[in-house]
């Protein structure tokens, strides 16, 4: 006898899916990332255009953004942990979109009245506008970091509940959305600027963010309403006031204030208990509180049992083997035109999506930790093609040319224009190199074997890269306690930016194409070190079972202890 309820019709199932919290998160994330990708692409173009096709403003902006996340990542994460989820999501959303809108309007003014601004106060008004644009854009990026932490690293976990498979599917879907928007959004805004103007591009981005902000705000509220668990954040006074139906916590009965119970990092970082409230401390205590939070966040990150897994992901950022301005610029020096590069970037995106899909399948067959190990082996194997490309015909690799020669000549001002065109400027300008050294003026290569092997390895490695990235992301989601989820992910972002900064410094020190092969070897070495760290983590967690293929039902994928880890 069938006691189950009536089965849902196809229309009801479709309606339930499109009104579910999971789908609403996908929609909100798609809107958010679309706006982010458009802005990140456009702001670099705007800054280059405003400063006379110079990379100075773009370099300053990149340095400010990376340095800010590096220094403030832990503090942003701690702020996410201390405050109610809805408040964090709404505040970061409003700040991010408002800053982009203000930046867009300010850039429209600059583009429209640049000639007049140059003449005012010897150009200081224009310089002030540049400073404001970079500063406000940096605030927008910090708010975007907070949004990413709270939605992708926290809300997704709560919506998935205890269902690890659902969490895997949600992470994979979010990453596919990232991949698609990373291709389509720059294409859209690029066409608008190409057929219109930079002024119109700024206006379009500002208008998009205004409309997107309203829609995302409504979607966040709907997700919050549909998922009651989002309102229950442990140890938060604000949440206790919001959920009046809950009984008073035992901490109050024992004489402990809610403010003390809502500061796990600060309490754990201090061995001696401090019963006095922060208000009783002097001004110096209040001023140095961010520094203590920063230190406590890094200490908590170090004490996590997934520390080596997180470090392994950060080490993958120390590489020139990606589709950024560096690799694109090198490709131009090797005779590839914009059309070929766009096709290669499309192939790279397809490869990344394949890696995302492969992640869900391999995890079901082998478990989460083994998926990371398999992904690392796959990525490193594909990158061997890049190492081989350094020594094949057509490679400009030449150890007899000093990698610091172009840097030295730039510093002393003795380099000629043709020499400069083939060094730092050529590599870092990406698509803008055609304005400095047109492709038809470059001598044709005798062989394209080297650059072909290089990009074949880079594209193939994206499958393992994105699968590995998703593995580490889910390991952090599942093995970091809820009260420290924000700060740990904030420190992880800081580590990622730190290694990313180092790879740019590496290129600045060795900018000539003859030294790019050396950068490739160093990059692959860092990727290998990262995967060695992950192997250490995986072997410590599973032992010899790491090399055994077993079904997920055997539950061998626990990390050290079945319970959630605690920091020392």
UniProtKB/TrEMBL annotation:
One of its GO terms (molecular function) is iron ion transmembrane transporter activity. The chain crosses the membrane at residues 55-80, 92-111, 123-143, 306-332, 338-361, 373-392, 445-465, 515-535. GO terms for cellular component: basolateral plasma membrane. Residues 254-265 have a biased composition (Polar residues). Keywords: Cell membrane, Ion transport, Iron, Membrane, Metal-binding, Transmembrane, Transmembrane helix, Transport. Residues 241-265 are annotated as: Disordered. It is a multi-pass membrane protein. May be involved in iron transport and iron homeostasis. Belongs to the ferroportin (FP) (TC 2.A.100) family. SLC40A subfamily. This is Solute carrier family 40 member. It comes from Lates japonicus. The lineage of its organism: Eukaryota, Metazoa, Chordata, Craniata, Vertebrata.
């Amino acid at each position: 006898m069938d006691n189950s309820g009536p089965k849902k019709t196809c229309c009801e199932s479709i309606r339930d899916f499109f009104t579910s919290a999971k789908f609403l998160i996908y929609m909100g994330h798609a809107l958010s990332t679309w706006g982010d990708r458009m802005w990140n692409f456009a702001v670099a173009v705007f800054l280059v255009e405003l400063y006379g096709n110079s990379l100075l403003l773009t370099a300053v902006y990149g340095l400010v953004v990376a340095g800010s996340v590096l220094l403030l990542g832990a503090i942003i994460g701690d702020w996410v942990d201390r405050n109610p989820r809805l408040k964090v999501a709404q505040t970061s959303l409003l700040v991010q979109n408002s800053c982009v809108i203000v930046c867009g309007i300010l850039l429209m003014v600059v583009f429209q009245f640049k000639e007049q601004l140059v003449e005012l106060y010897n150009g200081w008004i224009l310089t002030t506008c540049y400073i404001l644009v970079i500063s406000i854009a940096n605030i927008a990026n910090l708010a975007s970091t907070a949004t990413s932490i709270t939605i992708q690293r926290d809300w997704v976990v709560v919506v998935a509940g205890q269902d690890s498979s659902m969490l895997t599917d949600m992470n994979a879907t979010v990453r596919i959305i990232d991949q698609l928007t990373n291709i389509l959004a720059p294409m859209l805004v690029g066409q608008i600027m190409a057929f219109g103007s930079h002024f119109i591009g700024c206006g379009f981005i500002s208008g998009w963010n205004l409309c997107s902000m309203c829609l995302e705000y409504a979607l966040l509220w709907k997700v919050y309403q549909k998922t009651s668990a989002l309102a229950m954040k442990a140890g938060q006074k604000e949440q206790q006031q919001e959920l009046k139906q809950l009984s008073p916590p035992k901490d109050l009965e024992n004489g402990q204030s809610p403010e003390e119970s809502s500061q796990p990092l600060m309490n754990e970082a201090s061995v001696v208990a401090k019963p006095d409230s922060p208000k009783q401390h002097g001004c110096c205590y209040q001023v140095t509180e961010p520094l203590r939070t920063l230190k406590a966040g890094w200490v908590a990150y170090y004490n996590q049992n997934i520390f080596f897994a997180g470090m392994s992901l950060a080490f993958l950022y120390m590489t020139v083997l990606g589709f950024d301005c560096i690799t694109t610029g090198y490709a131009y020096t090797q005779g590839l035109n914009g059309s070929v590069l766009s096709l290669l970037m499309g192939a790279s995106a397809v490869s990344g999506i394949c890696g995302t899909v492969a992640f869900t399948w391999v995890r079901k067959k082998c478990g989460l930790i083994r998926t990371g190990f398999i992904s690392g082996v796959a990525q490193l194997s594909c990158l061997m093609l890049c190492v081989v490309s350094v020594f094949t015909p057509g490679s400009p690799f030449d150890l007899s040319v000093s990698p610091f020669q172009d840097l030295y000549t730039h510093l002393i001002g003795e380099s000629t224009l043709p020499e400069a065109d083939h060094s730092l400027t050529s590599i870092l300008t990406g698509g803008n190199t055609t304005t400095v050294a047109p492709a038809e003026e470059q001598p044709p290569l005798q062989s394209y074997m080297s650059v072909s092997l290089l990009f074949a390895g880079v594209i193939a490695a994206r499958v393992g890269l994105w699968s590995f990235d998703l593995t580490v992301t889910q390991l952090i989601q599942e093995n970091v306690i809820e009260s420290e989820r924000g700060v740990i992910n904030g420190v992880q972002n800081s580590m990622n930016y730190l290694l990313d900064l180092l790879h740019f410094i590496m290129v600045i020190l060795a900018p000539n194409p003859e030294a790019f092969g050396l950068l490739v070897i160093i990059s692959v070495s860092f990727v290998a070190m990262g995967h060695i760290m992950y192997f250490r983590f995986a072997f410590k967690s599973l032992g010899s079972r790491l090399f055994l293929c077993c079904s997920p039902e055997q539950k061998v994928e626990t990390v050290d202890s079945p319970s959630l880890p605690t920091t020392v």
